[in-house]
Automatic annotation (TrEMBL):
The UniProt record lists the keyword tRNA processing: no
Cross-referenced InterPro entries: A-glucoronidase_C_sf, GH, Glyco_hydro_67_aGlcAse, Glyco_hydro_67_C, Glyco_hydro_67_cat, Hex-like_dom2
Similarity remark: Belongs to the glycosyl hydrolase 67 family.
Record has Transcription regulation as a keyword: no
Organism of provenance: Micromonospora sediminimaris
Assigned GO CC terms: extracellular region
Gene: aguA
PANTHER family recorded: ALPHA-GLUCURONIDASE A
Keywords tagged on the record: Carbohydrate metabolism, Glycosidase, Hydrolase, Polysaccharide degradation, Xylan degradation
GO biological process terms held by the UniProt record: xylan catabolic process
Listed name of the protein: Xylan alpha-(1->2)-glucuronosidase
Location of the Glycosyl hydrolase family 67 catalytic domain: 144-454
Length: 685
């Protein structure tokens, strides 16, 4: 049985109303196996709420919904099931696979078919999205298969409260739903409810601890493995495999070995035996996530080895059990000298990993951030993604809004992610989505905490929803995904004017990522945030630091010269045509101009505005757009739950305050640097 939903937490996109279409009908479930029990329990819960019925045998009143495993279908089912099966042979073009499913409607019966139980579970949640439209006019079988084999969320949750980062590193929705002050949280209903939300959008893997593995977290691999197993028990009924972040120094830290050298026989034996013990306790364990030789984390460089040596060590230990190692490519020198213009953090991942292509084991997944820096509001796509055709690649997004408003600002990120996923590399038509689908899939840092609304800002739930849906199908349009989320979360049955509510939410959210971009760092230059906090403006906060995140603004211009001709040469890491496009300020897209070039303030953009006037205009425009969003949200009083309205109002008030601060500081800074007045005579302080 599914656990009862927690009563002290927002239902997000799975409110009881979303199951009305299913729960008000007579349902037949055909098949048996672990996840089928979850499907039956979900349908039973819906029927108990809405007056329908569910059974597992063909005998009984004619069903109006059949959910069936194809291998389990025999004689005695309704004729419509046979019709759907015949239909499927033509439509599917082959097996549906481990997670695929098909939907059809024949006569008065809607049929959901799957080859495996996981497909039936995902198909059930598809029916919740469709609602009554799944039960209208007849339609032929339509197959659905995930584009990505692995659709994963990484939690940056600490078991112990970190003295600087707290219980959740870069978490903006309260504490961890897994851990509390060094111990597992015992309110497991919250974890089960979370697993249910994730399965509803197609997530099938989760890492339960921070990639920065501290002393207590390291012990999850050995003496505290039972804590991980308990979490796996909660995720398993929803088809989600648990992964664990581990420290590369584990043989030294946990076993007292004198070395963690990946080529040392004793080290290899220790990892093999430790991994066997993990699978003995958690047979469906997913594998390891490793951040090595990055920002102080230990790695193979200490022993004169490279990342292929390090990753292959763990891959060999995992291979007999079917596990994978996600080896993060976020590796760079975090102790740079700001005086040295030849050093470029953006180059680092390519420089470290591209030469290793072809040397990684088949069960190594190199996990690459979608941009070359660090989840900035605007970056070019990382050239590493296309540089390693002989290596399985996972593309990493950040659902938690570290640099995009920290879930205090409305910032719907699906338009940005969709842009990245559709980015093409050249004449062969390959895209970022294609590389991820052919390799390690999509991974994102979760934005969930123990906040009653899951994500702190109720509207930030849309980002988690959209990530899961895009990982299933990167072709989906952000506006369509927002429609889905609105329809489920603010169900029409619960609002006096659902059309007005939907229109208003689109007006607030559709362009909110670009609104955020307008009033923060301009034209792809990045950062300009308060060091450490990464919230609010501090134009020179990182300018003379060791972190390598510079904008080089002076009296003549702004931006980083990454050209081959006169700069760091980063543009040369891209294949054509992008290496040529990015090389010149004349051809470089406006939105990333300052990422690639140091240009005069009077440089004219493709938009026809100068750089300095663009900075002034966009910062004024961004604040105006936030002001409009505040008024639009205020108009929804009485159309949404009062607690949701109050929380969003509080967050919008903070967003407006912060946006004005960004506008005033950025505009004043560049006015003082450039000496150029605003063409419209507005105050620049």
């Amino acid at each position: 049985m599914t656990a009862p939903a927690p009563t002290d937490v927002h239902p997000a996109w799975l409110p009881p109303e979303a199951f009305r279409a299913i729960g008000s009908r007579h349902c037949l479930v055909v098949g048996a196996a672990g996840l089928i029990d979850t499907v039956v329990a979900e349908v039973e819960r819906a029927c108990a709420e809405h007056g329908g019925s569910v059974r597992r045998k063909a005998e009984g009143p004619p069903p109006s919904l059949v959910l069936a495993l194809v291998p389990a279908v025999g004689d005695g089912g309704p004729a419509e099931l046979d019709a759907a099966l015949a239909d499927l042979e033509t439509a599917a073009g082959g097996p549906l696979g481990a997670e695929g499913y098909a939907l059809a409607r024949h006569g008065e019966v809607t049929v959901l078919l799957a080859d495996q139980p996981a497909g039936l579970l995902y198909g059930l949640f598809h029916l919740t999205r469709l609602g009554e439209t799944a039960f209208g006019a007849p339609y032929a079988a339509q197959p659905y298969r995930p584009a990505m084999r692995r659709r994963m969320l990484d939690h940056w949750d600490n078991v112990d409260v970190h003295p600087v980062m707290g219980q959740v590193e870069r978490g903006y929705a309260g504490g961890s739903i897994f851990w509390q002050a060094g111990q597992p949280r015992r309110d497991r209903g919250r974890v089960r409810a979370y697993a249910r939300l994730l399965a509803a959008v197609g997530i099938n893997a989760v890492t339960v601890n921070n990639v920065n593995v501290h002393a207590t977290e390291a012990r999850l691999l050995t003496e505290r493995l039972d804590d991980v197993a308990e979490l796996a028990d909660e995720f398993r009924p929803y088809g989600i495999r648990v992964h664990l972040s581990v420290t590369f120094a584990a043989p030294v830290v946990l076993a007292g070995l004198p070395t963690a050298d990946p080529l040392d026989d004793a080290v290899r034996a220790w990892w093999a035996e430790t991994t066997r013990a993990v699978y003995a306790r958690i047979p469906d364990f997913g594998g390891y996530v490793v951040k090595a030789d990055s920002e102080g984390q230990p790695g193979p460089f200490s022993y004169g080895r490279d990342h292929a040596d390090g990753a292959n060590l763990l891959a060999d230990a995992l291979a007999p059990h079917g596990g994978v190692v996600h080896w993060r490519a976020f590796v760079y020198n975090h102790r740079q000298d700001w005086r040295d213009r030849t050093t470029d953090r953006a180059r680092a991942a390519f420089d470290h990993f591209a030469p290793l292509d072809g040397r990684f084991r088949d069960n190594v997944i190199v996990q690459v951030k979608h941009g070359p820096m660090d989840f900035q509001t605007r970056e070019p796509v990382s050239p590493v993604i296309t540089a390693m055709p002989g290596t399985r690649m996972a593309v990493e997004f950040q659902v938690t809004q570290e640099y995009t408003g920290q879930q205090r600002h409305v910032c719907y990120l699906a338009p940005w992610w969709s842009e990245v996923l559709r980015f093409g590399w050249g004449d062969d038509g390959d895209t970022v989505a294609g590389v991820a689908a052919g390799g390690g899939g999509l991974v994102a840092v979760s934005n969930v905490g123990d906040d009653p609304f899951w994500t702190g800002h109720p509207l930030a739930q849309a980002n988690l929803y959209a990530f899961g849906r895009l990982a299933w199908d990167p072709r989906l349009r952000p506006a369509e995904l927002l429609d889905e989320w609105i329809e489920l979360t603010f169900h029409p049955d619960t609002s006096a004017d659902p059309d007005l509510l939907r229109r208003t939410l689109h007006e607030i959210m559709d362009d909110s990522w670009r609104t955020y971009e307008r009033y923060t760092a301009p034209l792809g230059v990045g950062f300009m945030v308060r060091p450490g906090l990464h919230y609010g403006p501090d134009v020179d906060g990182y300018e003379y630091s060791r972190w390598g995140t510079y904008h080089f603004a002076d009296r003549d211009g702004v931006g980083v010269d990454r050209s081959r001709a006169t700069g760091t040469g980063f543009t040369g890491q891209y294949p054509r045509p992008w290496s040529r496009v990015y090389e010149s300020p004349e051809t470089c897209p406006d939105e990333v101009l300052l990422f690639f070039h140091h240009v005069p303030y009077e440089h004219v953009l493709h938009s026809g505005r100068t750089v300095i006037q663009h900075i002034y205009d966009t910062h004024f425009d961004g604040v105006t757009e936030v002001e409009a969003a505040c008024l639009r949200w205020k108009s929804l009083v009485g159309l949404v739950d009062a607690a949701v309205h109050a929380r969003v109002t509080e967050r919008l008030d903070e967003q407006l305050r912060c946006a004005r601060e960004w506008r005033d500081q950025i505009n004043a800074y560049f006015h003082r640097k450039s000496g150029v007045p605003d063409a419209h005579g507005r105050p620049l302080h």
